[in-house]
Amino acid sequence: MGVDLRQVVAGVLTLTMFIMLGQMIRREHFDSATQEKFPEGTGDVENAKVMEQSLVTLAKKSNGPWMAVHQALKPCWDESITDKSQETEGEGFITFSLTNGPEYHVSQVADAVVVAKYLRATLVLPTIRGSKPGDEMIFDDIYDVDKFMKSLGGVVKVAKDLPNDVSIRNLAVVKVPNRVTEDQIAEEIEPIFRKKGNVKLATYFPLVNMRKNEPKSNSDSVACLAMFGTLELQPDVNEVVDSMVDRLRALSRKSDGRFIAVDLRVEILDKAACRESDANGQKSCYSPREIAVFLRKTGFDKDTTIYLTQPRWDSSLNILKDIFPKTYTKESIMAADKKSKFLESEDSEFEKVIDFNICSQSDVFVPATSGLFYANVAGKIIASGKNQIIVPAKIPGSSALVTDFISPYVSKREHLAYSCFC
């Protein structure tokens, strides 16, 4: 009996398919039984390559788990507070300074306006103090004076300077808790103001979160306006921020112009408190390696563009850049002709303001550290209609939904911004 060549070929193909299937089953079983390991060191290029290879299969086959953007929220504070017919002549002066960066400026302005409104005092345009002794700027070095004064029209009177007959040296200094209440003003500030006639406020921060108050108070509308409607960058600073944001979006063509901003500063990570977890296993801050692993496990593609608030590049960031090559600090995306002014030192107020505003305009914000920067950037993002503020965590498995890590400021609507916007 002759041999049918077609049957022989079919038999060989069938046998080959069974062999290949067996190999695939064994490989799948091996891969699933292999425990995922990550390199312990940071900044090691070879370790980063190993990590990238182990994580590449974990990311979704897309440009990342970007969430939809909603329309910007509308202010829902009481507009009658700006009724100029209700404006009264100032009875003395309230002065204050902006310190510690824009995340504090927002709260310092709100407290000063609330106090001045309650006392019917004239608010004097603040100076801006840097972190170093003698480092002082005038308000319009950073912020738009006209916008500030116009936005408070009908709320409080604003003067650019103290009158010549009032000496700043003779002002009584009064400490004010952040998010000061009317009861605190009446009990702790008003008696001194009535006696002295003029006071200087110094805000302190017993709490560094921006959770909304319950129940609401009469001063909430004033605080909302002051916090979200008064501070805008002056044109030169705004131009620099806009150009840097445009640059980041141009680098993000594969993700439709969207980018991630990570508040990550090495000097904070070096503090002992950042190395420890609380009783619930949560950490107060996360390392570059932990941020890289977290973002990849939540599905962000390696082509994702990331902006870091770190003042200058540090070798500890190398592992993050190895996983996400499009990772930048401000000196690599700022126009060369702007660097002499805006990058003059690593701790300048300009740099802090640039970071704050770029993070506020990002499509995804990741706070590597907790604190007021995170809280007040979150407020700006919520008001803009975006809600992808994700808090990092250690993910035990190979992947997780990014929606599981949305900040409680958003997921539980805990932020003060939800009392100010609707």
TrEMBL record:
Gene3D superfamilies: 3.40.50.11350. One of its GO terms (molecular function) is glycosyltransferase activity. It comes from the Eukaryota. The keyword Secreted does not apply. InterPro entries: FucosylTrfase_pln (IPR024709), GDP-Fuc_O-FucTrfase (IPR019378). This is O-fucosyltransferase family protein. Pfam families: O-FucT. The keyword Transmembrane does not apply. Belongs to the glycosyltransferase GT106 family.
